Amino acid sequence: MGPSSAAGGTTVLELRGELDILAVSVLSDRLDEITGAQGTDLVVDVRAVTFIDCAGLSLLSRARYRTRQRGGRLRLTGVCGGGSVARLLRMTGLTGSFEILSDETGGDDGDGAAGPAAVTDAAGTAVA
Fold it and tell me: Which helix (H) or strand (E) holds 49?
């Protein structure tokens, strides 16, 4: 897990590497601490996540739930079309459950491989 930084009231948490049961056991308390505050605006950057399994997905879902319960919001960024997080969200049908920010780099608009991610971004944003 990379650093979390607050930018204009938004906390950005960068996750890296494998998001599996081992990583979740380490991250869980930290994420609970962040999502325990009232009205938290949390952006979780998953672009450097190389692997995610159901434990990692459960961690993200719990963080989303805890944030919403306290009047805040959780958004994912770095969810690219071919990435492991995007794949797992698609496979589980949870893409629309998360608010997904498109990458500021513009990499999602234009090349064919990232096409599905662009559609997902729009749907995810509309849902939340």
Answer: strand 41-52
